[in-house]
Specification:
Blueprint (H helix, E strand, L loop, with lengths): L3 H30 L4 E8 L11 H7 L3 E7 L4 E7 L13 H18 L3 E7 L3 E8 L2 H13 L9 H11 L5 E6 L8 H10 L1 E8 L11 E5 L6 E5 L3 H24 L3 E6 L5 H16 L1
Parallel strand pairs: 3-4, 3-6, 6-7, 7-10
Antiparallel strand pairs: 1-2, 4-5, 8-9
Helix pairs in contact: 1-3, 1-4, 1-8, 3-4, 5-6
């Protein structure tokens, strides 16, 4: 049985995300993702006015009568939420941990998907695959995904993004819209696995950043421990040069990450956990819609 506090939290997320879907994101989601693909429907005899490029030469040769392939707009999409649950996701210095904000963002995307009759699946990973929920439709399914993201206790601590993307390729053979939610605090080279995944799927990264990961306050001597590796370091935050170098390192890492995404033509959404995540999502949908209209 779920704890009462968790049930309240799930209900609170459901109410908030449903309102946002109905008032803000529902139409944006539909305009960006629906109608982007075509699927095979049938083969029928050629009719005057048909595009000759659609002729099915195998059927035409077999029957002696010209036939064409008919395609229709995809009736549904599959959305995969690929969520990083490594130990660094349990860090937060504002209103919530990064993992909790990730769950809210995923809930918003999932409710947008089912409102448009799409299927939603979930992959939670650390340095291993922690949980896989195959794509399905329906509100009860989405509520189960939210529960899993909030209640699930990961066994691993580190981050194996490459392994997660390889697992995605194995379980999701058909094209999907993949929202990869992570803080991307990893030393691994993820460019190649991201490129391979983006060839088959529409990969969109959502990068979660806590304000204290880019800007240190001057509060004296602090001892830091890497949540994933256990490595410890002591620094003097009252030293302006230390704070400058810390901010510069975070900036360089962010710029390198953005450069990788751009080189692979992967759209990314940056979320500062100290601010409302809705505006970055809206801006992404508007940007996508504008690009599609060109």
């Amino acid at each position: 049985m779920l704890p009462k506090e968790l049930i309240k939290k799930i209900r609170r997320i459901e109410i908030r995300t449903n309102r946002l879907v109905n008032d803000v994101l529902g139409g944006e989601y539909h305009s960006v993702f629906k109608g982007r693909g075509m699927e095979f429907d049938e083969v029928r005899e050629y009719q005057i006015g048909d595009d000759v490029r659609a002729i099915d030469w195998n059927v035409t040769a077999r029957t002696g009568v010209p036939h064409v392939k008919r395609f229709v707009e995809e009736r549904e999409l599959t959305v995969i939420l690929l969520v990083d649950a490594s130990s660094s996701s349990q860090f937060g210095t504002t209103t919530a941990m990064k993992g909790e904000i990730a769950a809210e963002i995923c809930a918003l995307l999932a409710f947008s998907a089912i409102k448009n009759n799409d299927r939603v699946g979930l992959i939670i990973f650390t340095d291993k695959i922690e949980l896989y929920v195959p794509p399905k439709k329906g509100k009860s399914h989405v509520l189960r995904l939210i529960r899993d993201m909030l209640y699930f206790k990961a066994g691993g601590k580190g981050t194996d993004l490459s392994g997660a993307l390889q697992f995605l390729q194995r379980v999701q053979k058909r094209k999907a819209v993949v929202f990869l939610v992570s803080d991307f605090l990893t030393e691994e080279d993820t460019k190649k696995p991201l490129a391979i995944a983006n060839q088959r799927h529409d990969v969109i990264t959502i990068t979660l950043t806590d304000p204290r990961e880019v800007d240190l306050p001057p509060i004296g001597i602090l001892e830091f421990e890497d949540a994933e590796t256990g490595a410890e370091i002591v620094i003097d935050t009252s030293d302006p040069e230390v704070r400058r170098l810390f901010a510069r390192y975070a900036q360089v890492e962010a710029e390198a990450r953005s450069k990788t995404f751009r080189s692979l033509s992967i759209d990314t959404i940056g979320v500062d956990t100290g601010r409302d995540y809705v505006l970055p999502l809206i801006n992404f949908f508007k940007r996508r819609a504008k690009e599609m209209s060109r």
